[in-house]
Design a protein that fits this description.
Layout (H helix, E strand, L loop, with lengths): L3 E11 L7 E6 L21 E4 H10 L5 E5 L7 H13 L3 E5 L4 H7 L4 H8 L3 E4 L20 E4 H7 L22
Parallel strand pairs: 2-4, 4-5, 5-6
Antiparallel strand pairs: 1-2, 1-3, 6-7
Helix pairs in contact: 1-2, 2-4
This protein binds iron/sulfur cluster.
C-alpha cells in the first residue's frame, strides 16, 4: 500500500487545469481562505476521501490520453511529502506535473528551510500556478489562472535561475507533450 492523500475530489480527465488532458486531484485543507474562492468546502483540515498514491498512479498510467497530473486545492503544499512522492512516480511513468498553490514561489523557497518537503515537491513539478486568488484582480482571460496576481511558472527553470520564471504561453503547446521518460 502506498502513501495516502486526503482529497476532496478527483477529476479523471480535465482540460482546464493545465496543458493537455490531465487528471486533477483536489486536496483537502487550505489555510489561505481567499475571498471569492470557488472551493471553500476544501478549506477544513478534516478527513474527506483517502487516496492511495500508487492506486491513483495506476489509474493515470492506464489512460493513454493523459499528459499529466494536476494538484489543486485546497492547498497542495499542506500535503507536500505525499504529493512529491506521487509527482516523482508520475515522471518515472512519462507524465508531467502541474501544481496550484496559494503561496508564492518566493514564499515556498523561503519556507523550504522549515518545510523541506515544499522544496521536494517543487523539484518534482513542471508547472506551478502560484499566489492566492485575489477577487479584485479576477479575470476570465488568463490561461489556467483565476486572478492577475497569479503566475504560471516553469518550475525547473525557476529553480535553476533562483527566481520565478514564467512559462512562455506562446510556445506552450509546441514542446510540452508527455514528459520524456529519460528527462
Ligand atoms: S488557495 Fe485556492 S483553495 Fe485555498 S482559499 Fe485560495 S482559492 Fe481557495
Amino acid at each position: 500500500m502506498g502513501t495516502k492523500l486526503n482529497l476532496s475530489g478527483v477529476v479523471s480527465e480535465s482540460i482546464v487545469d493545465g496543458p493537455g488532458i490531465r487528471m486533477t486531484l483536489f486536496t483537502q485543507g487550505c489555510p489561505h481562505h481567499c475571498k471569492g474562492c470557488h472551493n471553500p468546502e476544501t478549506w477544513a483540515f478534516e478527513p474527506r476521501h483517502s487516496g492511495d498514491i500508487d492506486k491513483i498512479l495506476a489509474v493515470a498510467v492506464k489512460n493513454p490520453i493523459l499528459q499529466g497530473l494536476t494538484f489543486s486545492g485546497g492547498e497542495p503544499f499542506c500535503q507536500a511529502e505525499a504529493l512529491s512522492q506521487l509527482a516523482r512516480k508520475c515522471h518515472e511513468n512519462g507524465l508531467n506535473v502541474m501544481c496550484y498553490t496559494g503561496y508564492t514561489f518566493e514564499q515556498l523557497i523561503e519556507g523550504g528551510e522549515k518545510h523541506p518537503e515544499w522544496i521536494k515537491l517543487l523539484e518534482n513539478c513542471d508547472y506551478l500556478v502560484d499566489g492566492k486568488f485575489e477577487l479584485e484582480q479576477k479575470s476570465l482571460m488568463l490561461l489556467f489562472r483565476g486572478s492577475k496576481n497569479q503566475r504560471f511558472l516553469n518550475v525547473p527553470e525557476s529553480l535553476k535561475q533562483g527566481k520565478a520564471v514564467k512559462v512562455n504561453e506562446d510556445t506552450l503547446y509546441l514542446g510540452t507533450k508527455k514528459r520524456d521518460k529519460n528527462n
